[in-house]
UniProtKB/TrEMBL annotation:
GO terms for biological process: respiratory electron transport chain. InterPro entries: FAD-bd_oxidored_4_C, FAD-bd_PCMH, FAD-bd_PCMH-like_sf, FAD-bd_PCMH_sub1, FAD-bd_PCMH_sub2, FAD-linked_Oxase-like_C, FAD-oxidored/transferase_4, Oxid_FAD_bind_N. Residues 35-216 form the FAD-binding PCMH-type domain. Gene3D superfamilies: 3.30.465.10, 3.30.70.2190, 3.30.70.2740, Uridine Diphospho-n-acetylenolpyruvylglucosamine Reductase, domain 2, Vanillyl-alcohol Oxidase, Chain A, domain 4. Belongs to the FAD-binding oxidoreductase/transferase type 4 family. This is FAD-binding oxidoreductase. PROSITE patterns: FAD_PCMH. Keywords: FAD, Flavoprotein. One of its GO terms (molecular function) is catalytic activity. Its cofactor is FAD. Pfam families: FAD-oxidase_C (PF02913), FAD_binding_4 (PF01565).
Amino acid sequence: MNEQVLTQLRAAVGAPNVLTEGDLTPWEQDWRKRTRGKALAVVRPGSTEEVAAVVRASAAAGTPIVPQGGNTGLVVGGVPDASGREVVLSLTRMNKVRAIDRDNLTMTVDAGCVLQNLQQAADDAGLLFPLSLAAEGSCTIGGNLATNAGGTQVLRYGNTRELCLGLEVVTAQGEVWNGLTGLRKDNTGYDLRDLFIGSEGTLGVITGATMKLYPRPAARVTAWAAVPSMESAVRLLGLALQQLGAGLTGFEVMGQFALSLADKHYPQLRVPLFRDHPYCVLLENSDQESEEHARGRFEHLLEAALADGCVADAVVAENIAQARGLWHIRESIPLAQADEGLNIKHDISLPVSRIPVFCAETDALLQRQIPGVRLVNFGHLGDGNLHYNVQAPAGGDMKAFLRDHEEQVNTLVYDQVKRFEGSISAEHGIGALKAAKLPEYKSKVAIGLMRALKQALDPGNVLNPGRVLSV
C-alpha cells in the first residue's frame, strides 16, 4: 500500500518532489528540537491542483497528511508522528505573490509565501502589511493563517484572522474551495474563511490567501520605558491608548530575568535600563502625519507617565537603527532562553486588568513548589498575551527538570489561567503538544462542536490527525 500511494504521489507532483531518502530533519523535527518524527514521505507540490491531487491520493489510501509551512511552530502541529505512516505536505514551493490590488488595499498570495516577502512586496508597492513576528524570515503565511498567529502589532491590526479577507482551501476530499475574495462585506451564509483560519490544517489545507494592506505610516517612533511593576505597565498601557489611540501599534512587556538572558547571551545588544527595574516596556507609535508629530506625542505621553509614576525612566529611539536595535532585543529573548537551556513554554492570554495579580500569584506558587525556578515572562501586554515561560534553577539538570516537573508546572499554570478566565493558547495554537490538555480547559460543549466539525469535514481523519483534538 505504501508503494502504491508513493507512486501516485510521484505522479501528482513529480518524483523529485517526493522525498523519502536522505536527511529529512528539516521536515521531521520541530523548531524547538524537542520532537522528531518519521515521515512516509515529504511531498512538495508546486500548485493548488497538485495539492488537491496529493490529498485525493492520500485520502483514498487512508494515509494521513501533515500540512507544513516554514516549520516554525511551537506546539508540534506541523511535524509527523513516529509511526512512519504520515505524509508531510510541504507548501514552500508555492511561494508567489499572485496579485496586489492597490485601490482595494489587498494582496493575494500562495500559502507558502514567506511572511517577510509579503512585507517586502507591500513595502515595494508603497503600502504596509503589518503582521510581524520573530520567525518572519522563515514562517509562511499559510502557517500564520493555520495557527492564527499574532505577533507584535495585534494591538492595532489584530491577529492574522483580522488581516485575511479570503482563502483558497483544498478540502479533505481533494476539492478546491476558491474563496479568494477581496470583499470586506459578504454575508452570504456561513463564514468558511474563519472556520479554516486557526484550524491548524485539521479541516482543510490552505493554499492561497487574500490579505489586507494598509497605507504606510509617515513615521514610526519607538520608546523603551522602565516600569516599577506589572501594575505600572498596565497603567502605562491605559495612558498610551488614551493619548495615542490607533497610533499605538506596539506595546511589549519584558521581565527583568528575560532581559538578563538577552544581555547574557547577546551582550552586543546593550539592553537598556533593565538592571534596576523589574520590567521594561517597548512601545511603538505609528503616525500618519510626520516624524515631528509622532515624536511630540510620544514625549507628551512619557512626561505624563513619569509624573504619574508608572514610568521610572525612558529612552526614545533617535533613528531607525536605534529603533530596530530595541526591537531586536525583544525578538532575541526566545533565542536567549533557548541558549540558556531547555525550558517550559506557555503562550497564554488573560484579561489585561488581571495580568498583574495572575503574575504575582503564579510566580509565588511556582517558587513555593520548585525553589529557585526562574521565570521568563515577556509578551504582548497590549493584547493580553504573555509568554510565561519557566526555566530550571540555575546550575540544575535541564533534562531532569523537564522530566520531573513539566506536567506539574503546566497543570499549575493552566489551572491559574482558567481561574483568571484566560486561554492556554493565545497565538501558537494547540498542535499535538496541548491536544490532550485542551478538554480540561475548554467547555464540553465547545469540544463537542469542534469534534462535530472535524467529523463533518474530514470523516476519514486524514488531515493532521491527533493535532488540536486528541484521538
